[in-house]
Amino acid sequence: MSEKRERPARAVKLNVINEPKDSYTGGKSSLCPGCGHDQISNVIINAAWENGIKPHKIAKMSGIGCSSKTPAYYLGQSHGFNTVHGRMPSVTTGAYAVNKDLLYIGVSGDGDSASIGIGQLIHAIRRNMDMVYVLENNGVYGLTKGQYSATADIGSKKKKGPINKTQPIDLCALAINLGCTFVARSFSGSKKQLNALLKAAMSHKGFALIDVISPCVTFNNNDESMKSYGYVKENEVTLHMTDYIPHFNPITEVEVPEGHFRDITLHDGSTIRLETISDEHDPSNAVAALTALHEAETDAKHVTGLLYFDNTKASLIEDLGLVDTALIDIPDSELRPGKDMLDKINAAFLS
Amino acid sequence: MENIANDFTINIATANGTGSQSANLILLQSLFEMGVPVSGKNLFPSNISGLPTWYIIRLSDHGYQAPGNRTDVQVLVNPATWEEDLAALEPGTVVVWNENSKLEMNRDDIVSYPIPMNQIARKINPKLAKLITNIVYVGALAEILGIEQAALESAVKKQFKGKASAIELNITALEMGRSYFRENLSKQDPYIVEERAIKTPQFFVEGNEAIALGALFGGAQLLAWYPITPSSSLAEGMIEWIPQIRTNDDGESTCAVIQAEDELAAAGMVLGSGWAGGRGMTATSGPGISLMQEFIGLAYFAEIPSVFWDVCRVGPSTGLPTRTQQSDITMLYEGSHGDTQHIVLFPGTVEECFEFGWRAFDYTERFQTPVFGMSDLDLGMNRWACSGFDYPTENMDRGKVVRDRDVFEAFEEFGRYLDVDGDGIPYRTLPGSGMAPILYRGTGHNPMGVYSEKPHDYLQLMTRLRNKIDSARDQLPAPILREEKECEIGIIYLGSMENTIQEIDDILEATGIKVSQCRLRALPAHSEIENFIDRHEKTIVLEINRDGQLYGILRKEIPIHLVPKLLSVAYSDGMPPRGKIYADLILKTLKEGQL
To answer: What domains can you pick out in chain B, each with its CATH number?
Structure first.
């Protein structure tokens, strides 16, 4: 437990709650060497550590697929639930309803989220369920050996088989249209950007979707694939440089970048700083976000950064109208109404 | 002509969406207030307005609750079913019919009471005539049968709680119906209502509402549901009661309610809450359970507490959504792919609906496995007499949850699926506790909860799960036995058949057979079930479905030498069970069994 841990004699770098990064790591990955998902796992470890979140206060949730196996590879001190295909959002919602005090980090893939589980994703967004939803998007089904998924780009070709001709579903565009309160796209190869976005998502209250293009080195990393490392590196359009300033760091001490930037304050008091690269992107403007996505699609590019952000909407917990204490911490005696109450009910029925 | 008091069946044919439901409930309630043993069955269509609806009221001093074998008093209001309803009547039936319906009364072998219902209704209030028409026949019936005005007025007041204008309007309409009969017609039939002393005060309540209340007294913390007939009123009952009994002065509740996007999501939410250490439940019907199968398997395999209430309707497929059946016994007991076995509770009365409502949570947490409650449309959506709900006799059983670090530290070794006590039930810690965190999974796992495909781990796990569920048998509600000392014929039945069994028993005993009753209240079956079969010469397994689902389960589980003693009587036409049909089938089956 973090409370009992003594500071080690040898200088190991500790975070704001005196935890070494080791407290956030997990088991050894069994994914293919070089898999984008492993890079994302490392960023999740780093972001949680840097944000100083108690590891046991995180719940790691997933569905089924290569991406959904990854919770075994990070945050070994957190409970997790590797649920069923595409249904992680509902399980997370139920857990959240009875224990709102955990940080829920869901990991899903494009098969999980864009096909079988698209309905649950949509409704979790609609409820503004308070969670970080990391979509590890590679355009193919890995565990079943390389079928196209519903996010495969038109004209893209995986290692084996024909060119994909079916219209992809852009889950960021979908999320923006649904009023999702935090929508970002990133790339597993852009660690710095992903790290800032993940930390910001953890500080957000509401549904935070990060669609991370995460190349499948085995089935979809050839040059003709539009979700290969090579292609994404060449064709990534970055909206802005992304920086995260945690609430426990006084913002006045943070170096101010040259040129134009925009600071967005997050729910826990942290800040995400978006530094303008060329044209300024206004993440509060849904039309601008959708335009950026459509333009990128037309040019066969991938646009990354914080696409859309809205901190004005109530999250699910406010809609549920529950007591302040997490429901699982309420003693049994308060959950069961007293005998006098049942006597009153019986009497009222009889009258 | 000799009077027939409190022993006849009234059938009222109307169209839905016309206010007939409240008129019928007023009639039922007024009889109830006179102390007459009475039951009401609403046969409604899967439709909002305009389709045929029948309401069947049985008065029976024997306490028989099933619809009678024939209609004795028919009320005809609905032109759409006029001819069919009329043709089905036996000679001598009393027919109270709407003279303004422009349809012919072509039977002269019945007792005919024409009432100009629309005309009377228009006189009272032309704008509301359509709704008042129904209350006019209640007034006429009251006069014909001798229902007390005080009981009627009290029933009206109950139906329209505090709405003075509605109460006044209905009382006027009742009186108009009464006086029309008094002034224009004369009684020519034997049926009368006689007041009976009320020994124990009782009230009417629907099974669904009883489960809703029971669940809230069971400490439910999450209701995740998707609307489906005939279970919606269970969820809505909880929604209605939460502000009154589970909410503090600031309007904050201790039970979350989420209307899910579908039944899959509802099941997922229930599992999520159970995983996190809460008491979550859903209410659905057969089609919903079909959709939840995948999660049910996950809950069984990963050992997640979760409560599922299935208010059965007629299957398969969309089936007859507003008719009743014990349709899902097998699906609940053996739900999901692979080898599974689940705890299923079968309440047979509204009192038990309440009791199993709270007990289901204790069982699901004690055994760390999904628990199903199976009710049906008949029990769930019709009103049943209730003497009052009993307060839970035991404290909440939260099962083997380690919340305390001291307790946790005392374990030599902690594994999520380690069988420490040898009862097949492992210990668990909760997310957020920091104790023994694991990644729960629906894939194979070893006692430490780590992924495993090793044959030994799989076998050990499946054997333990089987033993765990098997150990529940005698901890679940025991069967209710009403035995004859002769031990001739036994009948094993369950659930809402409770309301018909005594009538069946009486019909059978009238033929000289001695009949013992055994109401199974849970699966896996209590060991008493086997003893009951053993004691009796022959045992009928009686159920409201086609295939004899419970028979199939028992046949598989009882010792092989008892199997020849077991006979199946299964029948379902969608209607609430009628005693004579089942009694005749039992007699036929016994006869065939002797050959």
So the answer is: 4-192 (3.40.920.10), 205-386 (3.40.50.970), 400-477 (no CATH), 480-594 (3.40.50.920)
